[in-house]
Amino acid sequence: MAMVMDIGVDLGTASVVIHGKGKGSVLNEPAVIAFDRDTRNVLAVGEDAHSMLGRTPGNIQVMRPLAEGMIADFDLASAMLRYFVTKVSGKHLIGGPRVLLSVPQGVNESERHQLISALFEAGARRTYIMERPVAAALGAGLPIGDASGQMICDIGGGMTEIAVLSMGRMVVREIVKIGGDAFDDAIIRYLRRKHNFFVGPLTAEDLKITIGSAIARNEQFYMEVTGRNLLTGLPKLMRITSDEITEALENPLQELLEAIHGVLEHTPAELVADIYDSGMVLTGGGAMLSGLCEAIRLSLKVECRLAEEPQECTARGCCMILENWQDMSKFLASKKRR
Fold first, then answer.
1. Which of 42, 68, 212, 251 is the most buried (most CB within 10 A)?
2. Is 282 left (phi over 0), alpha (psi -120 to 50) or beta?
3. Three-state DSSP class for 106?
């Protein structure tokens, strides 16, 4: 039986990340589940389910239980969460781990209570819910307890949460449905429109990660991918350039920049001055897009840096509170203020 340990859980649209108290990162897997359409029996979760995407017969469905920051299928989301928590902490009838869970803002109060019930079934002794931007800022090492403005932009798979924090509270917060998935969709639409060439989401994501950039690169890169020629219906091998991916990402990137600009507009002047001095920090898997910090810097004239291990920040922040409960549990009370 696995050793009991308190865990911080980042339940994201694209992935689930778990940090264990005193252990660091203990799990980082795709938020994907495979199940039988007829019986609703779960067949695979995480990496195993992700490898089945686009390769299953008609009676087996592979999906993300969360979409655009909201729960698309609650039963499957609960089953996935139970599976991951049990995987890292074992099964316990009594005396199981404390869990600090961060969920997207689109998850409503009723769903939060049901997720807590699902974790109780998985053996959690006690579950706390934490606001994602506060957890991400803690995990990125920002001094959010200080009386100075700190700006965080957490870019997930389905949504981005932008917040300005001061003295452990969110002063301004904005949520936009732009994230890694929107970047992938933009690449798919661009290739269809420009080349009559269709690729799936996994190929689009691969293009984004391998040669994608938010700004034009000094050196042109290319990647050969296989897709479908929409005029003939036959498979086709095509060479895609990095400049094409940059062009494809232009629209969702502009929406993201406008959302960040809107948050700065609504931020009190003193805190804006702090942000211009200290800069803003990017967290989340979507923040790893090449050139994104530079695009923000050029457009908004604000210094920007990518957090260390950006995809781990939220779960790390949750776990930091469990490790320093006496000093840091006050951050759990964070509420949105405009």
1. 212
2. beta
3. coil
Closest C-alpha to 265, from 168, 162, 161: 162
Backbone angles phi, psi at 302, to 5 degrees: -120, 135
Within the chain, residue ranges assigned H as helices are: 47-50, 74-89, 109-121, 132-139, 180-195, 201-211, 242-248, 250-265, 269-278, 292-300, 313-323, 325-328
Q: Residue 217 CB: number of other CB atoms within 10 A?
A: 16
Exposed/middle/buried for 209, CB within 10 Å: 0-12, 13-18, 19+?
A: middle
As beta bridge partners, residue 130 has 102
Of the candidates 258, 307, 280, 174, the one whose C-alpha atom is nearest the C-alpha of residue 272 is: 280
Can you tell me the distance from the alpha carbon of 48 to that of 52, in angstroms, rounded to the nearest whole number? 7
What are the beta bridge partners of residue 114? none
CA-wise closest residue to 224 among 254, 197, 250? 197
Region 7-130: CATH code:
3.30.420.40
One DSSP character per residue, 64-100 reads -SEETTEES-HHHHHHHHHHHHHHHH---SSS--EEE
Query: What are the pLDDT digits (tens) for 202-211?
Result: 999 999 999 9
Q: Which CATH class is domain 144-311?
A: alpha beta
Does residue 14 sit in helix, strand or coil? coil
Segment 277-290 mean pLDDT: 96
* The amino acid at 182: A
Domain ranges (residues) in the chain: 7-130, 144-311
SS3 content of the chain, % helix, strand, coil (to 5): 40, 25, 35
Q: Which residues are CB-neighbours of 323 under 8 A, at least 6 positions away?
A: 6, 21, 22
pTM of the model: 0.92
Residue with tokens 């732009």: 178
Query: What pLDDT, in 10s, does the model give residues 58-97?
Result: 899 999 999 888 888 989 999 999 999 999 988 765 678 8
CB atoms within 10 A of CB 202: 12
Q: Note whether 7-130 and 144-311 share their fold.
A: yes
